[in-house]
Amino acid sequence: MSAAGVPRLRWIGRLTVGLIVGLTVLAVILDARPGSDGRAPWEARLVAVAAIDLVWLLELTSVSLPRPLFVAAVGLPVAWLNVAEDGAVSILFLLLAVGWAAYTASESASRAGLGIGLGAALSYLINVDPEGWLAFSTGLVLTWLFVCGLLRQQQLRVEQERLVAELRAAQADLACQAQASERRRIAREIHDVAAHTLAVTMLQLTGVRLLLQRTGGDARAVEALAEAERLGRQGLDDVRRTVGLLGDGPAAAASAPLPGGGDVERLVADYHAVGLDVVLESRGDLTRLPAASGLALYRIAQEALANVAKHAPGALVKIQLDIDRRVRLRVHNTAGRPGAPVIRSEGGSGLGLIGMRERAELLGGSVVAGPDGGGWVVDCSLPLAKSQAANDRAEEAQLT
Question: What's the pTM value of the predicted model, to 2 decimals?
Answer without folding.
Answer: 0.43
